[in-house]
Design brief:
One of its GO terms (biological process) is modified amino acid biosynthetic process. The chain is of the alpha+beta class. It has a single domain (about 10-360), classed as Creatine Kinase, Chain A, domain 2 (2-Layer Sandwich). It has 13 helices and 11 strands. It has helices spanning about 30-35, 65-85, 110-120, 140-150, 155-160, 180-185, 200-210, 245-265, 275-290, 305-325, 325-340, 345-350, 355-365; strands spanning about 10-20, 45-50, 55-60, 90-95, 130-135, 165-170, 170, 225, 230-240, 295, 300-305. The two termini are about 35 Å apart.
């Protein structure tokens, strides 16, 4: 096993702003960001950014070496955002898709967002979906592409572990992650293709920009990619996590998967080019059922229980988790999902008492230390 001591990790969390009285998403991100500009950030490298919809806002941690510091930065980012939101009469909610919203949803100003909305047109109308994005430090883009190839079969299981968006505009979508279905309308969404090299990845990306399908080379919708701006691989499989612990769980699993892939690449084991359609089917199944139903094994081409896939993933990454000392934390977090259920299951349970109750629950969980 190659040492993981140098593998850094960071997380970007996307949130929704909801009106404190109506619980409907509120397009006040600019006002919240103005308040945050006056706040001293508690850790180096932390930042806050706008997103496409004016109802969304993002908090990014700095570079972390361990889960303890990551957890602290995630909590600090949420606390800063929640305080700024409350000062504007809003609440901060971490969910993969809005529970209650109204049309039209305005977009943030700027040339980049204008180009994105021009390309996507009606496909992006009302889009307010939020994800939990994990960055893991990788030495170069060639390695990052090789790692992405290894991650492809496991991205659906990372999603199944994180599903937290069963509702869409006041209705139960029937999916555990409606966010993935909302993103499926975008060109090139879902599991990334298998690439033989970083040069091949860049050629494909640039061609999609030339063809008018993407706004620029930094705007891709694949669930794993070499970061356009940082020396990392960025994994975007997960719905926004209701709790800090669930965001930490996703970060731990992603880092362990990246380390496992690096170990295999170091001894010359390239990833199998798993069929694109099987990967897409596995992602669909994870979005539909989460951990509470069947999954699809894209390598063995079998329909199995989603929890069987999770157990296989845990066996795969156990050596990496043991080396970082994260195995006990991961096991504890997954055990909590047993009695409590995933975020999607908790939302549906709260919905028995009405959708405003779901939003109230999400507000509490978002701010729970």
């Amino acid at each position: 096993m190659v040492s993981v001591g140098a593998l850094t990790v960071g997380v970007e969390e996307e949130f929704l702003l909801v009106d404190a009285a109506t619980r409907i998403t509120s397009p006040r991100a600019a006002a919240v960001l103005t308040r945050l500009a006056e706040v001293s950030l508690p850790a180096e490298g932390m930042s806050f950014q706008a997103e496409l919809a004016a109802t969304q806002i993002e908090a990014a941690t700095g570079v972390c070496l361990d889960l303890t510091s990551l957890r602290g930065q995630l909590w600090d980012g949420r606390a800063c955002l929640a305080a700024a939101a409350e000062a504007e009469g809003m609440r901060l909610v971490s969910t993969g898709n809005p529970v209650l919203t109204e049309h039209p949803v305005p977009f943030m100003p700027g040339d980049h967002y204008a180009r994105v909305t021009e390309i996507l047109a009606g496909a992006v109308a009302g889009y307010e979906s939020c994800g939990c994005h994990v960055h893991v430090g990788v030495a170069d883009r060639e390695l990052a592409v090789g790692v992405s190839n290894h991650l492809r079969p496991w991205l659906p299981t990372l999603l199944a572990l994180s599903v937290n968006s069963p509702f869409d505009r006041g209705r139960d979508s029937g999916y555990a992650s409606w966010r993935i279905q909302a993103q499926a309308r975008f060109p090139g969404a879902g599991i990334p293709p298998w690439f033989p090299s970083a040069a091949a990845y860049d050629r494909r990306l640039h061609r999609l920009v030339e063809l008018g399908a993407l706004a620029d080379s930094g705007t891709t919708y694949w669930l794993a990619r070499p970061s356009p701006w940082l020396p990392t691989i960025e994994v975007r499989a997960a719905d926004a996590a209701s709790t800090v612990d669930e965001a930490v769980l996703q970060a731990a699993m992603v880092r362990a998967l990246v380390q496992t892939a690096l170990t295999e690449l170091a001894v010359g084991r390239e990833a199998l080019p798993v069929d694109d359609q099987l990967c897409a089917a596995a992602l669909w199944s994870a979005a539909r059922y989460g951990l509470a139903g069947p999954g699809i094994h894209p390598v063995k081409e079998l329909r199995v229980d989603a929890t069987v896939l999770l157990e296989e993933l845990l066996r795969r990454v156990r050596p990496a988790l043991e080396e970082t000392g994260d195995l006990a934390t991961v096991r504890r977090s997954i055990r909590r999902l047993g009695p409590c259920g995933t975020g999607a299951a908790r939302q549906r349970e709260a919905a028995v008492h009405g959708l405003p109750n779901v939003v109230d629950m999400l507000v509490r969980q978002t701010g729970r230390r």
